[in-house]
Amino acid sequence: MYNSTERCKIITDSAEQTAIKAMMNGKGPETVLKQLSKCSKYRSAMAKCVSKDIIQEVSKLSKRSESDFKVNSENDLMNFKWEDQAKMIRTKVPTLAAIISCVIGEKQKSMARFVVAVGVMLYARCQLLNLLQFVLGLVLDSCGLNKEVSNQL
Questions:
Q1: For the whole prediction, is pTM greater than 0.70?
Q2: Residue 119 shares a structural domain with residue 147
C-alpha cells in the first residue's frame, strides 16, 4: 500500500487524489463519484455508463412481446391507473425513472407528471408504446376538446 506522498506522485490530478483519499478512508461510493465528477473526463464517462444502462432498459420495452405500455384492447384503457403505470415504470426502467424523478422533482402527488414525462419519451423512441397517448386523448376529449384542435395535435 502506498502512503500519501507516494500516492500523490503517481496520481497528479486533484480530483483523482481526493477520490482515492475518500476510498482509502472508507467513504461511500457517492462521495467518491462526487469527487471524480469534478473532472470533466470522469463526468462524461459516468454519463456514458448511465446512458448505456438506460438504452439497455428501454430497448427491452420496444420488443413486440412487451405489452405494458401498449394499447391492445379497450381493457388496457379502462384499467389505466397512474399509480400502476408509475410502479411499472420504476420496475422496468429504474435508471430512467430515477433521472426523470430527479429532473421533475417527482413526489407522490405528482405521479401523473412522472408518467407523462416517461410516456412521451418512450413514445418518441417507439410508437408502439402508445398507451399514454390514448389516455391523454380520452382525457382531452372528455374535457371538450373539439376535432379541429385535436387534428392539430
A1: no
A2: yes
